[in-house]
Amino acid sequence: MQVQSYFSSLDSLDGELATLNLGPTHPATHGIFQNVLKMDGERIVSAEPTIGYIHRAFEKIAEHRPYYQVTPLTDRLNYCSSPINNMGWHMTVEKLIGCELPKRAEYMRVIIMELSRIADHLVCNTVIGVDTGALTGFTYMFQERERIYELFEEVCGSRLTTNIGRIGGMERDFTPVFHKKLKDFLKTFPARFEEFTGLLERNRIFMDRCIGAGPITAERAMAYGFTGPNLRAAGVDYDVRAMSPYSRYGDFEFDIPVGVNGDTYDRFCVRQEEIRQSLRIIHQAYNNLPEGEYHAEVPDYYLPDKPDVYTKMEALIYHFKVVMAEVPVPVGEVYHSVEGGNGELGFYLVSDGGRQPYRLHFRRPCFIFYQAYPEMIKGSMLSDAILTMSSMNVIAGELDA
Amino acid sequence: MTLSNEQILAQLAEKMPGAALSSEIARDGILNIHTTREQIIELLLLLRDDEQLGFNFLTTLCAIHYPDNAGQELGVVYHLHNWQQNVRIRLKIFFPIDDPHVPTATGLWPTANWMERQEYDFFGVIFTGHPDLRRILNVDDMEVFPMRKEYRLEDGTRTDKDDRFFGRDGHVGQSFD
User: Fold this and answer.
1) Are the beta carbons of B115 and A368 separated by less than 8 Å?
2) For position B169, what pLDDT does the model report?
3) Can you give the pLDDT at residue B162?
4) B90 and chain A: CB distance < 8 Å anywhere?
5) Model ipTM?
6) In terms of DSSP bridges, do strands A18-22 and A34-40 run parallel, antiparallel, or are they unpaired?
7) Average predicted confidence (pLDDT) for chain A
8) What is the pLDDT of residue B17?
9) Which residues of A are less than 8 Å from B90 in CB distance?
């Protein structure tokens, strides 16, 4: 009905529709996806998304890799917040093998995961700024993201595709440099972040541009399987961290921000507030970081100390067995989910007791909510569609697996 | 008061007798219910709309292939989530690979659309009634369903992992091929 009226609108070229091929590579879409749009003037009549341009067969590869070698695959799902994916996977295996982590290891994980949530949300929100014409915030906040990556580098040696942590805990304790850099980050980041907030959050041009762009109702969002900030922007307070607390999230106090209209502005604001809440969690976890081991005593899965491998027979045997994946794995199936940058990231793991998963299915939030995109942009302007896509934070790696 | 697994089973036995062929509690504490493809849509509808059950959210669905289960080679696993009570449930159906037809759940949840396309793409499960059952991640002209177990990832020529030397039953060069 709504579409009909556009046929007769004054914007159209002699009442004819134009087909616009947006993508696969287009500077405004931040990733490789194609949308074939039917345009009436500048309005979108319908959209047909094509995905799979960077599909790398992760589920198939995972069936041919020992458990510890699946971690680097998860890096490449949502590569804006790899540590959350890594740890979600570790927790899935820990659930299968029935491994309890020391409190310190779990608090360390919480700190890392919340740092990566901040990095993820920073990318999304600054890019919303870029797409509305405000590049400044992006350049400022990327310096902060860089500092988060330096923290990751200090823990695991890499920055983007982190492969952080191990099955059974963390690979090493926080280093003195990490402590120094984290304290520095916690001290200086909030003020710089509020500068960014000041540039956009109540900026009239930005608000006019974002309010009402790409809205979705709570009912439709739930029916479309939305989770994470996109769902919360529509007003539903579902958050895996609060619903099914993992990694001792139950110890921390944090609020779950929700929006009202489910539009671009609400998604922006929800992510802004989540950054503040993540900082709150990091403060609590870091100030109460318990003493103790940074990994569980699971020699079957956790590599022994390297010096021991060279000097002790027992350690050498375990090292060999872990690397060759000759470790006992229970038969069974588990589903574990974590709150990723974009929502409920789930791992459904079926084990037949072999070296590698019998079946591993990733519930990828981006893949699931991106199918609502045509409905969300129908009848809107092309420029709003670009903005809607960046505010949904569709990450091609997670979309295509 | 949260919904316990026993209560779910009791409710199902009362409201849709015969729907649950068997059930067990998986390692993660989630109730697994085995049912048939003839009953799956009615069962999903009941689980979604019944006030006491209230499984409002389709978390994910995925296919699985067991080549050795004659007559039941392919399966589809549905994960549902009751957000009010925070209870999860897993439904499983199995069917022969020669007749991989399953009724679509797109009428219940629009989110099933791409999930089902994905499983069609990788396993060749044909979701009857699906509005747009095309390949989604693989190329359109692909001729196989690559996640089926007969398709090896790499050449199965590796012989350095003979399972017999590691205390396992098995074959040479199959586990990592």
Assistant:
1) yes
2) 59
3) 65
4) yes
5) 0.90
6) antiparallel
7) 91
8) 87
9) 335
As a whole number of angstroms, the distance between CA A24 and CA B62 comes to 27
Contacting residues for A34 by C-beta, under 8 A, at least 6 apart:
A21, A22, A23, A24, A49, A50, A51, A53
* CB contact B59 to A (< 8 Å): yes
Q: Is A313 helix (H, G, I), strand (E, B) or coil?
A: helix
Residues of A in Cβ contact (< 8 Å) with B27: 95-96, 98, 330, 332-334
CB contact under 8 A, B146 and A57: yes
Answer yes or no: do B111 and A368 touch at CB < 8 A: yes
Q: Which of B22, B155, B79 is nearest to A337 (CA)?
A: B79
DSSP output for A157-208: S-SSS---SBTTB-SSPPPHHHHHHHHHHHHHHHHHHHHHHHHHTT-HHHHH
Q: Is A209 on the interface with B (CB under 8 A)?
A: no
| Residues carrying CATH 1.10.645.10, chain A | 58-400
| Interface contact B176, partner A, CB < 8 A | yes
- Name the pLDDT band for A294 (thresholds 50, 70, 90): very high
Q: List the domains of chain B with CATH numbers.
A: 5-132 (3.30.460.80)
Q: Which CATH number fits domain A58-400: 2.40.128.20, 1.10.730.10, 1.10.645.10, 1.10.10.10?
A: 1.10.645.10
B79, A59: Cβ pair inside 8 Å?
Answer: no
Q: What percent of chain B has pLDDT over 90?
A: 66
Rounded Cα gap, residues A15 and A7, in angstroms: 6
Which DSSP category does A29 fall into? S
Return the residue of A nearest to B177 by Cα: A64
pTM exceeds 0.80 for this model: yes
Question: CB-based contact (8 Å) between B146 and chain A?
Answer: yes
Average pLDDT over residues A116-123: 95
Average pLDDT over residues A259-275: 95
Task: Give how far A81 is from chain B: nearest CA, Å.
Answer: 21
Q: Please give the average per-residue pLDDT across A375-388, as a whole number.
A: 92
State both tokens at A192: 């710089």
- Predicted confidence (pLDDT) at residue B82 exceeds the cutoff of 60: yes
CA separation for the pair B57, B48 (Å, rounded): 8
8-state DSSP, A108: H
- What pLDDT does A1 receive? 43
